[in-house]
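Let us work through a complete example step by step.
Step 1: write down the sequence.
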Amino acid sequence: MASLSGSTGGRLRAARFDPKAMLLTPALLALVALFIYPFAYGVVLSLRSADGGGVWANYAHFFTDATMWPTILVTLKLAVPATLINVLGALPVAFALRRHSPYQKLVTALLVIPVTLGTVLIADGMLTYFGPNGWFPQALHGLHLYHDEVRLTHNYWGVLISLVISGFPFAFLLVLSYVTGIDPTLARAAATLGASPWEQFRRIYLPLLAPGLTMAACLSFVQAFSVFPSAILLGAPAGRTRVISIAAYEAAFENYDYPMASAIAIVMGFVQLLIVAGMLSMRRAFYSGPTTGGKG
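Step 2: predict the structure and record it as tokens.
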């Protein structure tokens, strides 16, 4: 009996230890070194005060300073419309190009170009194209379509256009990957039962796309919320486009107050987490999988 229990215990220990789990070690080390440790260090640093205040002094200063806390609203006014435009605009384009064709490859290749350029190069091109003496204003005046001054740079609209140019390809590629993953025979089967194209989209494609659209919206929002180069090069960093990342930059590299900059960064991440959690909870509330029967 003793030998039997010993052999059984050895087999259980061998079953618990999987040598393949050792393959996760490099990934876990990279996760700790690149994400967990910097985040923990930033949280600890944000709880220190450069002027010797309390633990929450930096956060209290942020939410009581009239030049800091409004940056959250300014950033949301840019990130939310950009996210809606990118995701809702990418949906019909991806749906129209869901079938493999030369047009799909051509459009995908053209949309990848802004992703490879980067925000700084896009902003520089926009200054040349949309500036007061750029091609776009001159074309409008030359064609007598608009006679007043065209201001699409160094204001809110310049930053928003930049976020759409840089974020739309990203959202389109995400939505396209979800759309092409849906079996087209489902829509064809619904068509044989008399479903119109709109009913096919509403009852088949949209429920199956809901999780993918939510994830695309979350990623697009996080990308737009972290706007920094566009807000400086194309906006008014001391006025309407003074986003929260600019406030963190000023605290760190102009005031050399790294604890305050860390606190602003933590607030920035917390706001993003709240919005993303809200979008995910809305998806769970309104989506429970595609309907298979019952009253519609």
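Step 3: interpret the result. Confidence is low (pLDDT under 50) at residues 290-296.
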